[in-house]
Design goal:
Radius of gyration: 22 Å
Largest sheet: 8 strands, mixed
Number of helices: 12
Shape: globular
Structural class: alpha/beta
Distance between the termini: 26 Å
Helix content: 25-40%
Bound molecules: nicotinamide-adenine-dinucleotide
Strand order of the largest sheet: 3-2-1-4-5-6-18-19
Number of strands: 19
Length: 391
Amino acid sequence: MIVGVSKESYPGERRVALVPMVVPNLIKAGLEVVVEAGAGVEAGYLDSHYVEKGARILPQRADVFATADVLIQVLCYGSNDITGKADLPLLRRGQVLIGFLRPLGSLEVIQQVAATGVTSFSVELMPRTTRAQSMDALSSMGTICGYKAVLIAADTLPRLFPMLTTAAGTITPARVLIIGAGVAGLQAIATARRLGAVVSAYDMRPASKEQVQSLGGRFVELPIEAKNAQDARGYGTAQDESFYARQRELLMKVVGESDIVITTAVVPGKKAPVLLTEEMVKGMAPGSVILDLAAERGGNCELTQTGKTVVAHGVTIIGRINVATGVPYHASQMYARNITAFLTHLVKGGKLTLDANDEISRDTLLTKDGEIVNQRVREFLSLPALVPQAG
Ligand code: NAD
């Protein structure tokens, strides 16, 4: 079986789906690896590095698609809504496609992927179990985003982060507030602390309190309780508008006291909740920074403009998307390790095995034989349940 890696085509994307260091593991698992020429260059991985580890370089993108039995991408059509569609005619029935496919996004797009006949696996659907932890690309990219978000915000802030006692006087430390303490939020807390800021964090999942504190953050307690704050998979759940209104009211003071607010609050498949209003932005000191990691999902701040940086009431609001591409070397390395763990789980004796009783392959399988076959996605998109085939 041949595993193919194409160069990412999303504008500005610098990651690559497999890095040279994982090639020997794939070869050991009975797979061959082909890579589009130049696919890893922007992440720091040259063609010669892939060749040294046993991969073959193919000059044309179309050759990679034609040769690969399993095609690995970071942003597949679905998550790549700008140039991804151009890949559809290159895909073929029975070919395996693995990557970010945004399965809870547009029904039309997923139907188009399904219509190619590819057997696609969406990494976003990876179960959050101990067994699947090494394959969890969402967590890997969340880690990268949380780290990079702090660096971007720190670079924008007109103040220093650490407390300094100098001959020119004492500098007080920056105050950073993280809203949403999932994987990205926790990494942001750790990074901001390392830079010397005083860090507070809030999440509606009470379970996050201990994690925030273990990283040296102060947990912001609000006198409201979310209903079933966490779903069975560990994700935050959508709340009603009265809950969000109360949250905004209670967050007002702590937001006003912060130099930087980094927001990461998302609910799978839903528009991100608005947790920062214009009034709250007005309450922040001039020069403060909001970095909205939920910008791609509509944003946690009502003034966020997706993909843009704007200044309102003296506050810089960064709505940058695809933040993980800003650390392409390690983002690619982590993604490649996740995919390698996933592939070596799926491939037995050089052949792809699809075991309906295996939670990992069942939960991530999105399309097969022209159909959207994922039960969770079908329910989410209000598609009728598939009738199990006899035999
Ligand atoms: P996420 O990216 O889905 O959401 C980010 C955070 O926003 C979550 O913590 C969520 O609770 C929070 N949020 C949503 N709405 C909010 C609101 N209105 N107000 C405040 N906060 C709000 O989350 P994630 O990074 O995927 O992590 C969710 C949980 O899953 C974490 O506890 C994480 O440790 C856990 N997890 C477990 C595994 C595993 O067991 N294999 C893997 C990854 C993550």
